[in-house]
Amino acid sequence: MYSVSPFVYAFETPEYSALFNFFNGRILMCVSNDEREDLSAILKGNQGSESSVLEKLVSGDFVRKASYDPYKMLELVYDDYNHCNGTLTVIVILSEACNFRCKYCYEGYDGKVMESDTIDGIINFVKNYISNNYCKKIVISWFGGEPTLFKTEIVAFMKKLRTSIADSVEVSGFMTTNAYLLTIEDFKAYCEVGINGYQITVDGFEDTHDKLRQLASGDGTWSKIIENLHAIADISSPNLYVLLRVNYNEDVMVRIFEFFDYIKSEFGDRFVIHAHPISKLGKDENDSVCNKEIETNE
Ligand code: SF4
Questions:
Q1: 8-12 and 87-93 strand pairing
Q2: pLDDT for 269-291, tens place per residue?
Q3: C-beta of residue 51 within 8 angstroms of C-beta of residue 38
Q4: 114, 71, 117: which is closest to 93 by C-alpha?
Q5: Interatomic CA distance for residues 179 and 176, integer angstroms
Q6: SS3 for 19?
Q7: What domains can you pick out in the chain, each with its CATH number?
Q8: Which of 4-8, 154-158, 210-214 has the lowest mean pLDDT?
C-alpha cells in the first residue's frame, strides 16, 4: 500500500490533472481521461490494480510505501546540505523598498531598512556558524525589494564580512535585482566585493515587459534594463554568472521563443535564460497569473 508524500500538491484544470512534488521538483501531468481516472482513484487509496500511472507515481516519489518516513528523509537532506557540502547560504533582505511596481509583485514596499545592529548580528551569526560547523564557503544572497537601492550598505557588508572571517573560507554573493540601477560602475563594485551571481528579470519584449514591470511612476523599464545588460555583458570572469529570468503570462508567451532568439543574437551565450509562468505568490488581485507552460532548455 502506498501513501501520498506530504510534499506533493495536486491540482486539476479542465485540460489535465497534475501533481507537483516540492521535495524533488518533479511534475506529473495526466491528460487522457483514463489516466486522470486512474490518478484520482490512486489518490483516494484505491491502489489495487497495476497501472502505468502508479508506476509513474512511484518512480517520481509522489507516493511511497507506508513504512517510509518522509520527514526523516527531509532531515537527512537538510543535514547533508548544511554540514556536508560546506556551504552556508544566507538570504538577506535589507528592505522591501523597491523602485518598481510589478503587476505580480507580492511585496508591501515597506521603506524600513535593516538596522545596523541586525546587520552586525548577521555577521556574528556567520562567524559563530563557521566556528561550530564544517564550512568552507559563505554565500550572501541579496534579495528585496530592490537590493541595488542599498549599494553602500551591501558593499560595506561584504567588505566587513570578508575581514571578519578566516581567509580560508570563501565569501561570495548573489543578487536578485531588477537591474534598472545596475550601471556598469555599480556592477563592477558589486563584483569586486565577491557578488558574482545575478538574477535579472526581463519579461519578454518591451511591450509585454513594460506592462508587467513598471517603475513606481508607471514608466516603462525595458530599454534601461537592456542598456545595462549590454554594458555588463562585456565583463567576463570565470565565476561570473547571470541568469535572465523571464516571467511569462499568455501575452509574453506569444513571442517568447522570438525573445530567446533576440537575447541570443544580442548577447550570445553570456546569459542563461530561465522562463517561468507567473504564479500567484500572495496577493489576491493578481490578474497576471499564467496556467500554461512552455518547454525551454535552460
Ligand atoms: S522588482 Fe518587481 S517583483 Fe521585485 S520587489 Fe520590485 S516590484 Fe516586486
A1: unpaired
A2: 889 999 988 876 655 555 666 66
A3: yes
A4: 114
A5: 9
A6: strand
A7: 2-70 (no CATH), 85-277 (3.20.20.70)
A8: 4-8
Q: What is the pLDDT of residues 160-195, one digit of tens each?
A: 999 999 999 999 999 999 999 999 999 999 999 999
Q: Would you give the distance in Å from CA 248 to the centre of its chain?
A: 14
145 in the Ramachandran plot: left (φ > 0), alpha (ψ -120 to 50) or beta? left
Q: Is the peptide bond before 121 cis (omega within 30 degrees of 0)?
A: no
pTM of the predicted structure, to 2 decimals: 0.73
- Residue 103 CA to ligand 1 center (angstroms) comes to 9
Ligand 1 contact, 202 CB (< 6 A): no
Give yes or no for residue 102 CB within 6 A of ligand 1. yes
Only one residue has cell 525551454, namely 296
Q: Which residue shows C-alpha cell 489535465?
A: 16
Most confident of 155-164, 239-248, 252-261, 263-272: 155-164
**Residue written as cell 524600513?**
112
Residue 20: helix, strand or coil by DSSP? strand
Question: Nearest 5 degrees, angle CA 263-CA 139-CA 131?
Answer: 170
- Strand ranges across the sheet with 241-248: 87-93, 137-143, 170-177, 195-201, 241-248, 272-277
Residue 67 makes CB contacts below 8 A (sequence gap 6+) with: none
* H or E element, residue 32: none
Determine the pLDDT at residue 284.
58
What's the rounded Cα separation, in Å, for the pair 127 and 197?
Answer: 23
**pLDDT in the model for residue 191:** 96
Q: Is the CB of 100 under 6 A from ligand 1?
A: yes
CA of 113 to the centre of ligand 1 (A): 16
Nearest CA to ligand 1 atom 2: 102
* DSSP secondary structure of 73-93: HHHHHHHIIIIIS-EEEEEEE
